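Q: How would the C-alpha cells look for this protein?
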Amino acid sequence: MMRTDPTMRLLGAVTCETRERLREVLSLAMREFDFYAKRFRASGVSPEDIRHDDPVELLRGLPLLEAEELDELAAESLSSGRRIIDMETSSGTTGVRKRRFISHEDDASETEFLAELFKVCGVDSASRVACLDTDPLTLMASFTKALHLIGVEEAYMYCVGSDFREMLMNLPRLDPTVIITVPSIIERSFEALRSQYAGRPGTRLEKIIFVGEPLSAHMRRLLESTLGVEIFGYYGASETSALGIECGAHDGIHLFTDHNLAEVVNDRPDSDEGELVVTTLRQGAYPLLRYALKDRVAVISGACSCGLSHPRVEVLGRADDGISILGAKITYNAIHSAVYKDADRMGAMQIVLAREAGESLTVVLPQSMRDQEANVRKALMYAQPDLDFLISSKHLDLSFSYVEDDSFGDERKTRKVVDLRGRFDPAKV
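A: Here is the predicted structure in C-alpha cell form.
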C-alpha cells in the first residue's frame, strides 16, 4: 500500500462514478502520454495496478505536477492524434507560456460544465447576459457558448476600450440582467455603472459574476448597496478551465469535484489553509494529474445551506508572484526573465502596480540598466503578448523607473510586487 502525505487533504467524497472516471484518466495518461508513463514507472505503478487497485491511492502516490513541466506535456498533447480545435494560453512562471490544447470532446464537456455553473447563479432562459472584457476573443467566448446552451434570452460579448465610461454609455440599451466581467474592469467602470444603474427606473440588472481576479470585500459591498445586485464569484484557470462557482448562500466557492479532483497541501496537518492541487477528470487531450495550481485556499467546513454537496473553499490568492491585470495573468518571473534576457547576469527588479486614471505598471530597475530601456521594452513586449495587447490598446501604461544599484538591499527581503490598486476611491473614478 502506498503511503500518502498527511498534509495532503483530498476534498469532497469520491463517488464510485468519480473513482471509475479517475481510473479511465490514469489509464489514458499512461497509454497516450510518455510524460505520464515515466512518472508512473518511477512511482512503481503498472497498467495492471491501474486496472485493479484503488485509483485514488495510486494518484496520491504520484509527485506533484509543476508549471515548469507543462510545456513537455503540451507538446505531447498536440501530437496525441486527438482532433484539436482550440488552444488556450497563459503566461508561465519562467516566461514560457502555458498551453492547453482542447479537443472537440473536451470543448463540449467544458461548455456543459460552464452551463451547469451559471445555473447555480440563477442564470436561466429569461436572463440577458453581457460579458464585458477588454478582448472578447478570450474566456468570454466560451462563456457565451455555455449561455446559449442554457437558452438565455440573449448573450453577447461587449468589448470595452480604454475609455470605459464612453464605451459603457450604450450598455443599458442592451438591457442586461446579468453582467460577467473582471473585477479590475468593474473598478475602472464603477462610476459609469453607478450613473446608469443606481436608482434608475426600468433597468433590470440583477447579478454580477466576476471572473479572473479576486473582488475586494469593499467593492463587493459597494456594488451590492449601490446597484442592488447579487454578486457571484467564478473560479477557474487557463490550464484547467472551470473549477467552481459561488452559490446563492455566498459562503465560499463550490469546487465541483466530479469534474476535477481537488487536494490541498496544508501548511500543517491540522490547518484549513494550503495550496490547491487539481486533477482533471474531463480533459482527454490535456489531462493534468496532481497539478500544483499555486492558488492558496482556505477549506470551509460543514454543509452549505444551498444544498450542494461539493466542497467549499475561500480563494485567498496566489502562492507565487503571479499578478492579474484586467484579467491577463502575468508573473514576476516571466517579466524578470524577459527584462534580463540578454543581460550577462540576472539582476534585481521590482514591479509597482497602480490605478489612477487607468492601470499602470512600473518596472523598477538598477540605474545601470537605464541605457538598455528600449531593448528591454522590446523584449518584454515580445515575450508577453498579453502585456503588448493591453499597452497597445491603451488599457495599460508601462513605464520604467531607476534606482541606485544598491537600493534593493537584500533581494530576498525586497517586495517583488507592490500592488497599490486595492486603494479604491470611487470619488476618483
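The chain has two domains: 1-319, 322-423.

The chain has 14 helices and 20 strands.

Upvote if useful.
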